[in-house]
Amino acid sequence: MALRDDWSGPNACAAEVARRLREHTSTHWEPLLAVADCCCSVVKTPAAASREPQFKARDVFGRTVKISGRGAPALPPPIAPEFRSSGSSVGVAASLGDVNTRCGVDLPKTE
Which distant-in-sequence residues (6+ apart) come within 8 Å of 62 by Cβ? Predict the structure, then answer.
């Protein structure tokens, strides 16, 4: 298989790209990818991701959910933005373990 022909073996191509990326740290790749004509961002933390220009332009982290009373970024579903709730809306997520019994799992709560 030719390494440039990812149509003939997409899994093998992805594995080869992953292997090559593992050969160096992100500090090696970041400046090289910054000047390359490719879609790639080195993201170190969720906070860093929220500051990335491409994510900001798409308002990827604009919506939040409350989990155990604390706000957290909620990634939008993979649908067109016009079908998402507004960025200022706040959803609520269950606290860890809150719905176990409804899912058929009866685990003891730990504090």
Answer: 76, 87, 88
